[in-house]
Design goal:
39% of the residues are buried. 24% of the residues lie in helices and 34% in strands. The longest helix is centred in the first third of the chain and has 17 residues, at 90-106.
Length: 471
């Protein structure tokens, strides 16, 4: 039985700011074992039997970062492809595009397994068994969801009421009192957001219940281009026609309307990692109830979660706090208010503060840059270029740049000159000069870039040629 795990990677993960940001969303969060949620989702899908390929639907701006994540864990011969959206249209459009892609490549009887990129599943064997049961139900024509057997009266999840494998209804996030009744009844399960269905079953039900979404996605796919990049097949959805796709979730557009929905009740160690409280609970507590990831010194502190990315955090005489430190932003919150972190994210976005969107270290197809200092008329960056990679041939109107190589060797185009710049050597690039940076070596190239000028925005760039298709 052919199986295509479809990883849906979108959303901002605003409740997990400052680690999760618009261009570094929740799926890229690393857990204590060093793996990201995205990597764990990929490995979870790859471990299933009958997998033909793993298909990821995501924003086009995240492709290169995601490709690095997948290469880091090793693909082990698993065919991996992408559907790249120019902007989000929620999960119904993403699932429809995946269904149409699978239809074209593998046919109607192929099973799609829809997996959010930002959930955690700790029991792989139980997950495998649940997927096998879901495939059997899907082959009989059902749209299958996975219902998590509740361990507590959670109010942050939607619930599914079921009689055996038959879904009776979906219900929204309940009050505490109602959630207690749900758990006690034994008929209700947490809605995991994972689904399984055949291509034929999915498309037939979408034609019946959300035809506008399906037809708009079909029109978009017909005008979209497929390409190979970095060893991956990419279907890049046409931006103009994608604007016509109605925005809705697969839950509302299809699952709650269909009369052909089944559920697989399961206990698979599922966690949606929906808040810092959920992240905190992944770690064992010390004798005072504190959970610490990174460097921290505590004195008379109890029931705190502290996460630090490099700097030392000191906590004295505090209780029930979430403290999350990154190089450019610090979160301090009462545990009881961890769901409200999204309000901080929203305020930063409304104010145009870049910390809602980017970390100080920003990933690019060729490597990374880290902002070391940022002033009104100068900026200092640490730039790291991967072996064999190169930046675009580009020009800036308003800034000049001074590059100092501190490790490795750089191949530089500067105006009409091409040169090699060795460690402890530098070159100056005036505003208006075409220039390019390349790493011709087998080791990482590291340099310090000093920008100066009246305007230092990242949008002051004219690309003439780019191996990553951004020109």
């Amino acid at each position: 039985m052919r199986l295509i795990p479809v990883i849906l990677c979108g959303g901002a993960g605003s409740r997990l700011w400052p680690v999760s940001r618009e261009m570094h969303p929740k799926p890229f969060m690393r857990l204590a074992d060093g793996k990201s949620l995205l990597q764990k989702a990929f490995l979870r899908g790859a471990a299933l039997s009958g997998v033909q390929e793993i298909l990821t639907v995501t924003n086009s701006g995240l492709f290169f970062k995601m490709a690095d994540e997948f290469r880091e864990i090793g693909l082990d011969g698993v065919t991996t492809s992408f559907i790249l959206e120019p902007f989000g249209r929620n999960t119904a459009a993403a699932v429809a595009a995946a269904g149409l892609r699978a239809l074209a490549l593998y046919g109607n009887d192929t099973c799609l397994l829809i997996l959010p990129a930002d959930h955690l599943v700790t029991d792989q064997a139980a997950f495998n068994a649940a997927v096998a049961q879901a495939q059997t139900l899907a082959q009989s024509g059902s749209l299958v969801t996975f219902g998590i057997k509740p361990t507590a009266p959670e109010t942050g999840f939607g619930y599914i009421e079921a009689d055996g494998t038959q879904v009776l209804r979906f219900v929204e996030k309940p009050s505490v009192e109602i959630a207690h009744k749900y758990v006690q009844s034994g008929r209700f399960f947490w809605n995991s957001g994972m689904f399984c269905f055949t291509v034929a079953g999915l498309l037939a039900q979408m034609r019946e219940h959300c035809p506008a979404i399906l037809s708009a996605v079909q029109a978009c796919v017909s005008q979209s281009k497929t390409s190979e990049k970095l060893g991956f097949t990419r279907l890049e959805l046409d931006e103009e026609s994608f604007k016509a796709v109605p925005e809705d979730s697969i839950d509302y557009a299809l699952m709650e309307k269909s009369h052909s929905v089944a559920v697989v009740p399961c206990s698979i160690g599922w966690n949606d990692i929906g808040s810092w409280g959920a992240v905190s609970n992944l770690m064992p507590a010390d004798g005072n109830g504190n959970r610490i990831q990174g460097k921290a010194v505590i004195q008379n502190a109890t029931n705190c979660y502290i996460q630090s990315d490099g700097r030392v955090v000191g906590a004295v005489g505090v209780d029930d706090l979430m403290i999350v430190d990154t190089p450019d932003a610090l979160l301090v919150a009462k545990k009881s208010a961890c769901q409200d972190v999204k309000q901080v994210y929203a305020q930063l976005k409304a104010q145009g503060d870049e910390t809602y969107k980017l970390h100080r270290t920003v990933h690019r197809p060729w490597g990374t840059y880290t902002i070391l200092e940022d002033s009104d008329n100068f900026k200092i960056k640490r730039i790291e270029v991967k072996p064999g990679a190169q930046l675009s041939l580009q020009m800036h109107h308003h800034r000049s740049e001074h590059w100092i190589v501190v490790s490795g060797m750089a191949k530089v185009v500067n105006g009409d000159k091409e040169m090699l710049v060795n460690t402890n050597e530098s070159t100056y690039i005036p505003a208006g000069h075409k220039h390019r940076l390349e790493n011709p070596g087998i080791l990482d190239l590291v340099l310090i870039e000093v920008q100066s000028g009246p305007y230092l925005g990242e949008d002051d760039i004219v690309r003439f040629d780019d191996v990553y298709g951004r020109a």
